[in-house]
Amino acid sequence: MKYKILTLGCKVNIYESEVINELLLKEGFICDNLNPDIIIINTCSVTNMADAKSRKLIRSEKRNHPNAILVVCGCSAQNHQQELQDLKIDILIGNRNKSQIVTLIKNYLQNSKPYTSFAPLTNDFENMEVDKFTTHTRAFLKIQDGCNNYCTYCIIPYLRGPLRSKPKDLVLTECQKLVANGHKEIVLTGIHTGRYGRELGYDLTSLLQELITIPSLERIRISSIEATEITDEFLQLLKTSPKICNHLHIPLQAGSDKILKLMNRKYTKEEFKNIINKIRSVRPDIAISTDVIVGFPSETDKDFQKTYNFCQEISFSKIHVFPYSKRDGTVAAKMPNQVDKKLKHERSQKLNALSLDLETQYAQKFIGQNLLVLLEEEKDGYYIGHTSNYLKVMVKKSPKITPLLLVKIISVNNNIIIGNPL
């Protein structure tokens, strides 16, 4: 039978969809995005817009493929269980038992009975493994799930459950398989990646120390890490190991101490700045990207200006800007002084404009330098890929092309970075 998988949301969802894809292929199913007999939708619920996209996609696929078996899983399913049950989905689960989807499909093919189940989000890690990513040059490796932070704006801890980690030996084995199958870069991902292993008696740095010993693994990228998780041991590894990518994504969320406290973030502006300075003391040219939420309840013009000025001062390589999304079930949803939608939009535009400026300023530093680019796609006469510090580079075609290519950066215009192969 033929299937297609549609994925919304984060790198964890992308990884889990890749697991499902690999399991289906091993059982003889055929991927066919045009005429599928089975449609699997892995949903997202990080914002109201993500929920809306998930519902729209479900309805669209039901309409376009009325005879296909519809499987829905993920965060939006976990968050809106009754609402999605009303859509008459054939197989509906939340964030547990994604690794069992092939079995559920086989059962449905035998008995044609709709299946709905939302298993408890417990402390045990549901192990999943991928041998090779089919759609990415780099490979994602999920090492952790769940979150115990409970930031006041975030619904994800309620939908993903408590912190839990993949045993280190399983991570190492999976990474070795991915590298043996040709992946030069591994992206470590999770819901709260920086807290990896804490409940098992070790930490992210201890894992990294073992991963960097794997032969033929060129790069290790960390999908996200909190400022509070940057330890002296981590900094020492960052200083000494070139395999750790020259890019860290460190969420800020706000540049106002008042708002940070309301968000239940675990640091002040000054503490965040000190950590960034420590990182740059060992990697002066590192790219540091971030997330910022604008329009959080009680955010005044003065608070927003503090955030704007702080982002300018830190000089991030990129800012991912998110207008605050009110999520029922979170503390912030009940807070007074909710910010007007129009004002959130205006503030988002200002911060996005700053991000574009900062991205250009950072990229221009590397004009004339030679950087390794991991090539990922071919388009309009160029190969496109990313450097260790996550610059997206367009490389002119050359007969001597290798997956990891040394190029000279020759221009940066409107965030289009051109490099010549060496």
**How many individual β-strands?**
19
Question: How much helicity do the residues have?
Answer: 25-40%
Quaternary: single chain
- Mean model confidence by pLDDT: 96
Low-confidence stretches: none
**CATH architectural arrangement of the largest domain:** 2-Layer Sandwich
Q: Tell me the domain tally.
A: 4
User: What is the CA-CA span between the terminal residues?
Assistant: 46 Å
Side-by-side strand order of the widest sheet: 2-1-3-4-5-6
Model description:
- By secondary structure, this protein is an alpha/beta fold.
- It has helices at 11-26, 48-64, 75-79, 81-85, 101-111, 156-160, 168-180, 204-211, 232-240, 257-262, 269-282, 301-314, 341-364, and strands spanning 2-7, 30-31, 38-43, 69-74, 91-93, 115-117, 139-142, 144-145, 164-165, 185-189, 219-222, 247-249, 287-294, 318-323, 370-379, 382-387, 392-396, 404-413, 416-421.
- Helix 12 packs parallel to helix 13 (341-364).
- The longest helix is centred in the last third of the chain and has 24 residues, at 341-364.
- It has 4 domains: 2-117, 3-Layer(aba) Sandwich (Rossmann fold); 121-245, Transcription Regulator spoIIAA (2-Layer Sandwich); 250-264 and 286-365, Transcription Regulator spoIIAA (2-Layer Sandwich); 370-421, Beta Barrel (OB fold (Dihydrolipoamide Acetyltransferase, E2P)).
- The chain is built from 13 helices and 19 strands.
- Strand 3 (38-43), helix 2 and strand 4 (69-74) form a beta-alpha-beta unit.
- The chain has a 6-stranded parallel sheet with strand order 2-1-3-4-5-6, sandwiched between helices. A 5-stranded mixed β-barrel has the order 15-16-17-19-18.
